[in-house]
């Protein structure tokens, strides 16, 4: 895991902070969500997340790979194709990501009703 903090021994909330340090960037949660269904190619991730630039998507994927959340496979085709999938460690995020999805759906629905 690529550690950004020098020390995670900062108290009771540190496991949450450490997790959010890894998946808390704007696009990383969405990437992990899209990989829950299996391996996805870079171009398909771009289509599923149309508001992220290719540069930012590539950066987020590199960071998730460095943190051991995803694995990258390069296929020997012309042009080369790259697929991404969750690692065993990344799969452990499944319940949390699905709960974030449910929470976001409920919250967004409540917001939409309140805005009417």
TrEMBL record:
It comes from Ancylobacter aquaticus. PROSITE patterns: HTH_HXLR (PS51118). The keyword DNA-binding applies. Keywords: DNA-binding, Transcription, Transcription regulation. GO terms for molecular function: DNA binding. It comes from the Bacteria. It holds the Pfam family HxlR. InterPro entries: HTH_HxlR (IPR002577), WH-like_DNA-bd_sf (IPR036388), WH_DNA-bd_sf (IPR036390). Residues 14-112 form the HTH hxlR-type domain. This is HxlR family transcriptional regulator. The lineage of its organism: Bacteria, Pseudomonadati, Pseudomonadota, Alphaproteobacteria, Hyphomicrobiales.
């Amino acid at each position: 895991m690529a550690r950004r903090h020098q020390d995670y021994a900062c108290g009771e909330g540190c496991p949450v902070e450490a997790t959010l340090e890894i998946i808390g960037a704007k696009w990383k949660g969405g990437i992990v969500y899209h990989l829950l269904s299996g391996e996805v190619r870079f171009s398909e991730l771009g289509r599923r997340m149309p508001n992220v630039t290719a540069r930012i998507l590539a950066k987020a994927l590199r960071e998730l790979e460095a943190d051991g959340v995803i694995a990258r496979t390069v296929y020997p085709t012309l042009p080369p194709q790259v697929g991404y999938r969750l690692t065993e460690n990344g799969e452990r995020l499944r319940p949390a990501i699905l709960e974030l999805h449910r929470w976001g759906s409920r919250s967004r629905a409540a917001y939409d009703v309140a805005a009417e």
